[in-house]
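USER: My hope is that you can spare some time for a protein that puzzles me. I am handing you a single protein, as its sequence and its fold in token form. Walk me, if you will, through where the backbone shape changes along the chain. The protein I mean follows directly.
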Amino acid sequence: MQVLKSYLCGEWVSGEGAGQTLYDPSTEEALGTTSTEGLDFGAAREHAITKGGAALRAMTFAQRGEMLLALSRAIHSKRDELIEIGMKNAGNTRSDGKFDVDGASGTLAFYGEFGKSLGDATFFTDGDAINLGRSSRVSGQHVLVSRRGVAVHVNAFNFPAWGLAEKAACALLAGMPVISKPATATAMLTAKMMEALVASGALPDGALQAIVGPTGDLIDRLGPQDVLAFTGSGATGAMLRSKKNVIANAVRVNVEADSLNAAILGADVERGSETYQLFINDVARDITQKAGQKCTAIRRVFVPTAMVEAVNEDLVERLYGTVVGSPFAEGVTVGPLATAAQLRDVRVGLELLVKSGAKVLTGGSAAVQGKGAPEGKGFFVAPTVLFAEDPHAASAVHEHEVFGPSTTVLPYKTADECIALVARAGGGLVSTVYTDDRAVSAELALGIAAYHGRVCIANGRMGSGWLGPGTVLPSLLHGGPGRAGGGEELGGVRGMGLYLQRAALQGYGPLIEGAVANARKV
């Protein structure tokens, strides 16, 4: 079996003891082990701050951008190898693997080009100078400068490549060093990607380190200049926020957590229309892609009461013929869940939705024999569509996210009722309104906007430019209020804001003007 190593203080290091075992989720075969026991996380943090941070701050935005472009090329050069590792350790189909790996290289490339466009500045001015008296002799100017700590990134199991890249791209371009911690269960892909990034020679010493396994006492060491960005369950996010040192030092924390994303079919849309077909295709894709293990996946499908029967019928038909099994078996379109714990949680979640009033139309929590997998092995679940006739009574549908290949259809009578039902989830990452009518678009999209980080408005006339609501774009915000964690990532310069400190320079105007002469205006 492979022994995975962490990359700390410029070296590949292994921890003590047996550590944790990583598995193939299709066969349950042990693939490797990793341990971080005994590793010096205090030294890693100090190395990041003194070496990585100093080096990054000495670079211009354009130079940091060139660095990110080199990292993007390094990932692309290992693309096929990385995709295959994701198939083996994360259960990705080849298509799902491309989604993850290409998302990583694409996000780094976007921020690389963005950095080049920012030019030779090393920090930002925020707004114009403000006269504080009758003349410009006394003035004020807001600036955004790199924080002097380390950014610790704790990522989820479902995107071992993209998860590292999307957080690191923003932090590195902002001039802040990173210690990245992938979820252990699927870390083989992240470890191999880190090898490519280090071998590229583009990273200054200490700019990017990786912990493959538990973080030990690292989080407990974070101080006032540090940043903690976490993607995962709301419960874990709340635990991290409540740590004594995080509260005492006001450590800046960003959380991306649970999300009961919605797809809303407008009352104006007719069955068989281009917009209707787009709606069916998007919902079906989000059920099956990554076996439903996406934070942006559609969990609730709101449909006008008159269209419920048609939508239920067409969704079930659209999923007919999907093949669940090993990503290496011919014809498989839905891979396994990532871990045995994930399989258990999904089955329990589906049963909870049924007890709450939802009816299974196809799929369900029963065991599935995956194509190409050994008899009785693998963490497989059938693509599942449920229907709750009373959307108000089925409370679990609005409270519990089943992080697997399932969605629930819910009827609504009026736009106001739909908006109220969407809001019951307590905040989400992304929801989508499917309509051809401007008035419907305005009422629904703006009605749900306060509860989301991103709202999509879709119809059949968009053509190939539409990538679906589940695709997170580096140019747009990713995050959301409430249940979704209350965080913000990506979105161009907005994603860099987590790693920048806003300060107001106040005093003699000409000196302030000179101090910010080489800044880039936001």
